[in-house]
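Sequence only, no structure available. Ideas?
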Amino acid sequence: MKYIFKYLLISFFLLIASCNSVQNVCNFDGVTYDFNSKNIKLNNKNISSIPSCIGYLNNLKILNLNKNKISELPISIGQLNNLEKLYLSQNKLLSLPNSIGNLENLISLIVPHNFIKNIPNNISKLKKMKHLNFKLNKLDSIPLSLFEIKSLELLDFSANTIKTLPDDIGNLINLKDFYFDRNQLKKIPTSIMRLKKLRKLSVIFNQLTEIPEALGYLKNLQMFNCRGNSIKKLPINLGDMTNLQNLDVSENNITELPIGISGLLNIKTLKLSKNQIKSIPEGIGSLIKLEKFDLSFNPITHLPESIKYLKSNLKKLTLSSCKFSDKEKEKIKIWLPNTNIIW
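Reply:
I predicted one. Tokens follow.
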């Protein structure tokens, strides 16, 4: 009897171990992953669903499911406590489960090219999040809770139908790159001046009519692109953005440039095409690091002589569809003998 009891006890523990072993694996797309799996890459596999057993893989750090046909995430995905990077671009997602807020170690959530209409409010719980990409979805608003994630460094909401940016955007004090292209934005909130670490800001093809002077406080901004809006003038303190290297204000309604543009001492690319600019201020000669300058499709008839001071670094000057006389063209050629001028 003693030996029978001992045998039954051992068998019981083996059964328990076997059950636990089963619960610590997940069969996904014909492959079995166990508790120790850290990186799953199944992009472009024609996958239409994620098994709920995905929640057993507690040590998973990277989950790449780009370019599939996934329309829904299981609630169990919120059990992946060690997940750091989640890639779900080019799927058929309509929403994200509330359990996404449980991924306390998530650093990157990349979900562009889906059909997501709403972002869960508890996304604010993702306190370690640095990279958030919702480009090309169906969003018409951003929950205020998202602006509580102060760790964010990259934020992309391009190609949605969002009409407003709340003042809370100023809470994202660690934001470095912000992309808000092709939405329906009419105004940039002045609170953007609090984003002292911002390096790149792109708001092309929105409905902006002005750029706030608050932008001048962004001393670390290196790239600003607002092409394809209805902007009539640039802020007078534009030159305060002394680290700006790339400025594109093409396809707007700008009629003149502020004198302060002379302060852009590190600018390398300046695009002003398709506006209503008739003259360029003398201060343009201060931009000695300028390499590419596009003034095409403006009713401009002459350039200031100070442009000759750009001859050392200016590689390309685009003046096509402007109104320069032959005499004026000859002047410019003499001032800029080594520049590729496109008429």
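The longest helix spans residues 2-23.
Hope that gets you unstuck.
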